Amino acid sequence: MKLVLLGPPGAGKGTQSAAISARYNVPHISTGDILREAIKQGTELGKYAETFMSKGELVPDETIIGIVAERLKQPDAAKGFLFDGFPRTVAQAESLDKVLAESGNALDAVISLEVDEEEVVKRLSSRKVCADCGAISAAPADNNDKCKACGGKLYTRTDAQPDAIRTRLQVYRAQTEPLIAYYTNKGIIHPIQAEGTIEQVSDRISESLTA
Ligand code: ADP
Q1: Which of 6, 75, 187, 189 is the right S-S partner for 183, CB 3.0 to 4.6 Å?
Q2: Cβ(134) – ligand 1 distance below 6 Å
């Protein structure tokens, strides 16, 4: 299965990805995670990406396209993949189509998580992420500093400040939302109502993909 998970920041892409990638036995590829790892390692890519990410802006297309092309060459991506946070612009989507077409492939489905903006702002400003395993915790509901999954330290992402959140949402509307029409035209979009419990959303995704 070659899948893309689309949706505004805070829609639950990271959370839903684990279940989807396990179900279809394909690697979960998050460009946000790849970039945050580069920042943590202090690489040139990390330093460059951080200047955009901390403000909530997009990292330039050519950088992202390069990262993705490299990642798709890894053997585990041969059987399929689940992209999370990519593509984020029409240029990235066109470039993905082109890379796949070179090996006679195409995307199977695009899952579009739909959630209203107030809910998104609420989720983004309160959540914390585990520094070790990347698990997302909805603070302040579970307001402590340890990850429930692995005991690692929880932190608030630097792009979770109100200004950066506003920018991320504006950038989403202007640059990423047009992808819904792009993939609707290709007939591969699966709109999913993303409010409710994690399990409810996950069930809706499975039902839509098997329908
Ligand atoms: P979220 O969906 O919660 O905003 P991500 O982890 O997907 O979180 O992305 C965090 C940041 O990383 C983005 O705001 C952007 O700066 C950068 N980024 C991640 N993926 C891409 C991409 N495909 N194109 C450009 N920038 C990206």
Answers
A1: 189
A2: no
